Amino acid sequence: MIRAHKFLMRPTAGQQVALGEMLRDHCLLCNGALQERRDAWHHTSKTAARCGQQSVQFKEIRAFDPERQSRWSFSSQQATLRRLDKAFAALFRRVKAGEKPGCPRFRTVGRLDTVGAGHIKVHQHRPVAGRVKTVSVKREGRKWFVVLTAEQAAPEPLPATGSVVGIDLGTADFLADSPGGFVPGPRHGRKAAAKPETAQQTLSRCKRDSKRRRKAVETVAAPHRKVRRQRLGHAHKTALDPVREHDVITHEDLKISHMSRAPAPKPGPDQPGSFLPG
Prior knowledge:
Helix content is 45%, strand content 17%. It has two domains: 2-151, no CATH class; 164-257, no CATH class. A four-stranded antiparallel β-sheet has the order 1-4-3-2. A four-stranded mixed β-sheet has the order 7-6-5-8, covered by helices on one side. By secondary structure, the protein is of the alpha+beta class. The protein contains eight helices and eight strands, in the order βααααββββββαααβα. A hairpin with a 2-residue loop joins strand 3 and strand 4 (143-151).
């Protein structure tokens, strides 16, 4: 079983600059590898440039320009190439399945926030259960995090209770269970929307690629990140009690976003789709 552990980083000002340069260089690497794959596909109609071939080429590039390209871990740069390879594998899988393809796109520096870190030194303030497999550095707004994925043994099963429950996820209430219990919705999004709305208006007036706009983007994005964390925390805490108290939990596979939409108006006698007797 693979489990992720997230740790908050407190880098100095100089370290933040170095981390930003690392994201920028990995973004350039990802975009260059993506351009090579696109050119290979357009010229030969085949996936000529694969992850292994690009890794060999990058070794030669690092040897040719060691001052700039060799300052980052080669394993972290390989991880960036593997992420791009997974994106193309998912693209071909969707094409074969007849789904919407969604081709990988070029990224700007602000849209590449996670980089494999390779081997780094950290001050470990709490133990990590299991064997650490990967280490990544992630940027969320003005904060930096270290994300560890560790391989752990399967947990021991909880004591049997002999209880079965059905739950129904809703829009007015968070959920309702078969014994008649209800969990009200936390309304995190509504509370966040009640905060000053001038931040979005300020963002719309800012000039693109300006320092003022970057600050306005962070002001608008911070409440959304907080709401996401609150929703995840509420969902995990709410699910803990049913998991401990019941052996079997059943629920309907519903699309809540579809339930909250307004019903489409029925076509009239003069509109397409209506039935007119002959």
